[in-house]
Amino acid sequence: MKNIFLVLSFLASAGLSAQDVTMLIKRADSLEAALKESPAYETFKQVLKIDPRNYYSLWKCSELCSRIGNRQKTKESKIDYFKAGRIYAETAIKVNPKQADGYYALSVAMGRKALIESGNERIKAVKEIKTNADKAILINPNHGRAWHVLGKWNYEVSNLNSLEKAALKLLYGGLPKASLKESIHCYEKAKQLEPVFALNNLELAKAYHRNGEELKAIELLRQLPFLPPKTEDDVRIREEGKQLLKKLED
Fold first, then answer.
1. Is the C-alpha dihedral spanning 45, 116, 100, 102 positive or negative?
2. Is 0.85 topped by the overall pTM?
3. Are 64 and 41 in contact (CB under 8 A)?
4. What distance lies between CA 24 and its chain's CA centroid?
5. I want to staple 89 with a disulfide (CB 3.0 to 4.6 A). Which of 62, 80, 93, 188 is the partner?
């Protein structure tokens, strides 16, 4: 009789934990939708205290670390967030290696960190960033944000200086195939899949501008203020777009 009571108690607590996880995820999603990313992040972390293998919460924590980290004031604080983002994403991949979001989140965390690192550190990350974004797209060809990562990767790698290209060639035995044309293709694919992704629209406008396609860049930048905000960064993105538009129209 005692054993039956223990089993029933365990099942009841397990059911309660499952309910708690569902409720917390719903709350975290609502907070993120309300552009309250730090509270959303903390709520997803509460989920992981109950269920450390919760795949959705793992990759969302990674994605939010990359966003929140990018807004930090110091390089050290940024790097701390990006490192945490990498750990969350790598754990998500271990939990479910057949889903795309973990690979996407890992490519973002690595990419954000690489952009603020020194030349050598940035070069070392080049191959892994693309590898993970490619894996995400192989699993889910309609993953708009993974296409955005590939657009950014092509844009940055094709814009490396001669010393960085020499280091890349030395490290990997050759230069990766990266071009502005491919960057535009990837950004356009991301736009097709996620038309209200403000950051992608801004980066695509920059790529058009760099490619001499000023009218396309201007058209995108004029649309930017009318996109519904999806992240805390969208205010900054709109302002950056406004400044670029002013420069192109002058």
1. negative
2. yes
3. yes
4. 22
5. 62
As a whole number of angstroms, the distance between CA 184 and CA 192 comes to 12
Residue 71, classed as helix, strand or coil, is coil
Residue 10: both structure tokens together? 């365990």
- Structural domain boundaries in the chain: 195-250
Q: In whole angstroms, what is the distance from residue 15 CA to residue 92 CA? A: 23
| Tens digits of residue pLDDT in 21-66 | 999 999 999 999 999 999 999 999 999 999 999 999 999 999 999 9
Residue 229 is classified by DSSP as P
Residue type for 193, please? L
pLDDT at 6: 53
pLDDT at 161: 87
How far apart CA 172 and CA 123 sit, in angstroms, is: 10
Burial class (CB in 10 A: 0-12, 13-18, 19+), 112: buried
The residue with tokens 């205290």 is 49
List, as one string, the DSSP characters of 2-65: HHHHHHHHHHHHHHHHHHHHHHHHHHHHHHHHTT-HHHHHHHHHHHHHH-TT-HHHHHHHHHHH
Exposure string of 9-48, with b = 16+ CB inside 10 Å and e = fewer, is: eeeeeeeeeeeebeebbebbeebbeeeebeebbebbeebb
Tens digit of each residue's pLDDT (9 = 90 or more) over 195-231: 999 999 999 999 999 999 999 999 999 999 999 999 9
